[in-house]
Specification:
By secondary structure, the chain is α/β, with parallel strands linked by helices. It folds into two domains: 170 residues, Aspartate Aminotransferase, domain 1, CATH 3.90.1150.10; 274 residues, Aspartate Aminotransferase, domain 2 (3-Layer(aba) Sandwich), CATH 3.40.640.10. The protein contains 13 helices and 18 strands. A seven-stranded mixed sheet has the order 4-12-11-10-9-5-6, sandwiched between helices. It has a five-stranded mixed sheet with strand order 1-2-3-16-15. 45% of the residues are buried. Bound molecules: pyridoxal-5'-phosphate. The site of pyridoxal-5'-phosphate has 15 residues, from helix 5.
Length: 460
Amino acid sequence: MLKVNLLSDEEIRELDDKYCSWGDTTHYSKNPKVFRDCSGSFMFDSKDIPYLDLQMWYASCNFGYKNKRILNAVIDQLNKLPQVAPKYLYDYKVLLAEKIARANEKRFQEKGRVHFNVGGAQATEDAIKVARNYTKSQGIFAFMGGYHGRTMGATCVTSSYRYREKYGHFGDRAHFVPFPYCFRCHYGKKCEDCDFYCVKQFAKNFESEYNSFYDPKTGECEYKTFIAEAVLGTGGYINPPEGYFKALKKVLDDFGIMLIIDEVQMGMFRTGKLWAIENYDITPDVITFAKSITNGMNPLSGLWAQEKFISPNVFTPGSAHSTYASNPIGTRAGYEVMQIIEEENFEEIIPQKSARFLSGLKYLKNKYPQFIGDVGGIGLALRIELTQPDKISPNRELCDAIQEEGLKGDLIYNGKKCGLILNNGGFYKNILTLVPSLYITDAEIDMSIELLNQLFARFI
Ligand SMILES: Cc1ncc(COP(=O)(O)O)c(C=O)c1O
C-alpha cells in the first residue's frame, strides 16, 4: 500500500523548530529522527527503512509495537465506552484492579488495593501521598541514581541535581543513599568481599540521635519511607547483587520504615518477573507501575498498596485524583496486558532470551576491550558500559556517537539497509541500556549483536 505522508521530514522539523517547546527531551539529539510506522521490534522511517528497536519507547512497549491483541482491545473499547468520568464505575477499571491485586496476593501473600493515575511521575506522587498519609511524616530516603519522574514531588525523590537546579530549593528533597552499583562502588569496595558494606553504612544512620535520623531513646524515626527501584532504569540498568535487598529490608523493618518499590520501568516482566523486586525475595509495602501496563497504548499508571496503607478509612475518597485516572482506554489495554501475562510463559522464556543476548554482549566485550568496560543486567534489561581504554573511565562521547550512528539507517543486514535504535543512561550517561521487546526472536537477538558489532567497528 502506498503511504502518503502528511508532512515531509523537513516540514516536521521546521514546525517543531518554530512552535514546539524544546523543554522536553526531543532536542537531546541535534537532529531528531522522524519515524512513520512501527511493528513488533521495529520502527520505520520515511524511506521505509526498518530500525531494530532496543529501547521500545523507554520500556513502555514490552509486548511489541502494534501488538494485535492490545490494539484490538483498545479499538473495541473505543467503539463501546471510550469516555467515562472517574466518578462513575465501569467494568475494566475494577477488572484490572482485581487482576493486579490478585497477582500480588499470589506473589506476596498480602491483600491490597489499586489506585490509578495517568503517568509514572503521578504514580510516584500518589505513592508519596499514601506514605505521608500513613506515616504522618515527610522524610523519604531514595537511591542515588534512582529516577521517579519530573513533576515537582517526583523530582524531590530523584537524585540527579540537573532536574532541580533551575527551579530553586526543594524543601522536601529526599536523603539520597548510594545504590549497590558494584562496578563503580560508592565506597570503593569489591563486591566479592564487601559483606554489604553499603547496607552497614545505611544502618549507621540509626545508631545515635546525632546522626540526625533517629532517636534511640524514643524509637522515633524522622524518615519513615524509602522509595526505590529494584533495578536502576534511567540510572543505567544496574541490578543489585543477590542478598542486597534482603539486608536493606531488615534495616527498614528494624526502624519501621515503609518501602515503596517503583516498577514503572522494570515492571511488567522486563526482568523476567512481573515485578523486578520479586527477583530479590522481599515484600514491598507499595508498588508503582505505568509504561508497559498498557504497552504504551494510552497513559495509565497506578499503585498497589498493602491493605493497611490504603484501606478506605485510611486513604479516604478524594485523597488523590486526576480527570484521566482510570480512563477506560488505558484500563482496557491494561487488562489485555495482564491477560497476556497470565497466558504466556515469560518466566521461562525471558531467562533464555536473556542468556542468548548476554552471551552476544560478552562476545562484543571481548572483541572491543578498548570500548567496553562491563556488560550485564537481568532479564531483558541489559547494559553495555562504555569506557576509555583504562576500562573504567566513562566514555560518554562514544555512547552519544553510537546512538546517532545507529539512527542513520545505513547498516546492512542480510543484504538490506537497516538501523538500530539505542538509548543511554547511567550516572555518566555512558551506558547503552538495552530494552528489547519481550517477544524479540532469537534471529532478532543475533541481528542486535551483529548491528552493535557493525557500529563498534566504525569507531575503531
Ligand atoms: C522508574 C521510573 N519511575 C518513574 C518514571 C516517570 O514516568 P513518566 O515518564 O511516565 O512520568 C520513569 C520514567 O522513565 C521511570 O523509569
